[in-house]
Write a sequence for this structure.
């Protein structure tokens, strides 16, 4: 039976390690094709409509139980790591005492219902806050990756000194205090729960685990206790990090079992086995009793009412909001409601953006869009020839547009304020904004005394931020205002879109 456990551990490592490397790669050495590992996560697959992946996860769960939680979910693997820290191989070395605990059905099913209900009513806030994959992505992007930025700076300085410019510098411009706080809370929560109670988070809070638990109750292959061989010693229960084995009754709550196989390796009587058990009805212990449903009917109604009442407040900003206050969505987002509903704030696009122009938002999209990425042109601008953010998005929030379509996607429009321009203030030449506009939307026109000032042609502007980034004025004389929904820009009347490479300010 050790072979089953080791097979699970190896498979978990094959999924977990590439996922971690994809998020923390500060040298951009990991091929973008590795983003395929993100598409097998449950919530991104659900939001992006990858029905083949969803059918695979359902079939996997129906056959073998909650293998997804033990092998595919990165947050689940991390919990196993924390859980291992307080578990010894032998009973006398056991630092943590685990025992069978009754399922908190009212809590986990209430969270599941509230999450689904609020999402259907138009708010993805609970999905963002509770999805285990997205939380894990934020932990890696906001806590682990920033710790590696000094290493990137050291390597970049050494390679630049040798004339090698293949490694790009990474800055901390994409960091957000809110994202760091939320990521830290999640990490502390699962670490504490794992150290003290094993998979408590998976079986009480995580809506994905609760949903898959409904299917795993009918799994064909499952851990089975041979009552005739069992001595009811409780060793299997103490090794069960899901606390779902009632050794006194020789019963297992399959809705909470994550198929870790710890019980198989710990049993000294060979009373526990993993075998084909056919389709059967769950025991009374496994299914929520009518008493539980009736007892918590009021709580269910209260939670549902809360979801209905809070959903409008969790929605994004109204279309009446001025474009100056709207966050600029990454290219490929399309309609704002689509982006807000699909994006789970996993920050895969934030970590992979080579120009460092994506940053987690706070309440720029409203409560519903907490920590969703926005364009930020203080440290860079969106390169017209780059489609990386769209390519790596696993949830379908960013549509993977062909390069030619991306180059004509208008995420916003540049707005020029004469009174802030250095030409107006200092009576001197500039033109940096025009020089760095790839679509010629910003051109220089005659002003006075032989000077020229910027002029914006809005219909051909794509909102890339090249003009805003290059503007030397403080505050900026030219800034990009977001479109509520992304639109198509007109093609420039002359020539082709030019490639822009900024070195300093270029003038």
């Amino acid at each position: 039976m050790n072979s089953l456990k080791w097979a699970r551990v190896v498979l978990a490592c094959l999924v977990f390690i590439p996922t971690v490397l994809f998020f923390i790669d500060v040298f951009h050495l990991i091929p973008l094709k590795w983003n395929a590992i993100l598409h097998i996560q449950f919530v991104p697959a659900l939001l992006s409509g990858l029905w083949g992946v969803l059918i695979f996860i359902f079939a996997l769960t129906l056959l073998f139980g909650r293998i997804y939680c033990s092998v595919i979910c990165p947050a689940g693997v991390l919990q196993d790591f924390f859980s291992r820290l307080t578990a010894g191989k032998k009973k006398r070395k056991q630092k943590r005492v685990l025992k069978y605990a009754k399922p908190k059905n009212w809590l986990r099913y209430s969270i599941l219902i509230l999450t689904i209900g609020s999402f259907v009513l138009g708010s993805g806030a609970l999905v963002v806050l509770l999805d285990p994959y997205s939380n894990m992505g934020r932990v890696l992007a906001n806590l682990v990756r920033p710790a590696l930025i000094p290493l990137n700076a050291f390597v970049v300085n050494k390679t630049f000194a040798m004339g090698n410019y293949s490694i790009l510098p990474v800055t901390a411009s994409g960091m957000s205090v809110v994202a760091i706080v939320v990521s830290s809370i999640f990490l502390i929560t699962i670490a504490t729960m794992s150290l003290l109670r094993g998979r408590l988070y998976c079986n009480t809070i995580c809506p994905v685990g609760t949903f898959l638990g409904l299917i795993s109750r009918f799994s064909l292959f499952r851990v089975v206790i041979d009552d005739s061989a069992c001595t009811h010693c409780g060793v299997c229960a103490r090794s069960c990090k899901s606390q779902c084995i009632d050794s006194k009754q020789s019963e297992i709550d399959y809705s909470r079992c994550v198929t870790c196989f710890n019980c198989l390796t710990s049993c000294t009587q060979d009373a526990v086995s993993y075998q084909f058990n056919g389709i059967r009805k769950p025991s009374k212990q496994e299914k929520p009793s009518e008493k539980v449903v009736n007892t918590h009917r009021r709580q269910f109604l209260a939670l549902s009412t809360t979801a209905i009442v809070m959903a409008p407040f969790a929605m994004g900003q109204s279309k009446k909001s001025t474009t100056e206050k709207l966050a600029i969505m990454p290219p490929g987002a399309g309609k704002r409601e689509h982006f807000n509903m699909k994006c789970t704030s996993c920050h895969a696009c934030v970590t992979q953006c080579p120009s460092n122009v994506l940053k987690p938002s706070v309440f720029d999209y409203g409560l519903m869009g907490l920590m969703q990425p926005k364009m930020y042109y203080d440290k860079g601008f969106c390169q017209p020839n780059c489609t990386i953010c769209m390519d790596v998005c696993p949830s379908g929030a960013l549509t993977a547009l062909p390069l030619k379509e991306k180059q004509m996607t208008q995420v916003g429009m540049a707005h020029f304020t004469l009174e802030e321009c250095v030409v107006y203030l200092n009576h001197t030449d500039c033109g940096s904004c025009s020089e760095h506009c790839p679509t010629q939307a910003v051109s220089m026109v005659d002003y006075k005394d032989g000077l020229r000032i910027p002029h914006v042609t809005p219909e051909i502007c794509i909102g890339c931020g090249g003009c805003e980034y290059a503007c030397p004025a403080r505050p900026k004389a030219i800034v990009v205002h977001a479109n509520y929904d992304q639109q198509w820009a007109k093609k420039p009347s002359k020539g082709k879109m030019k490639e822009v490479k900024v070195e300093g300010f270029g003038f």
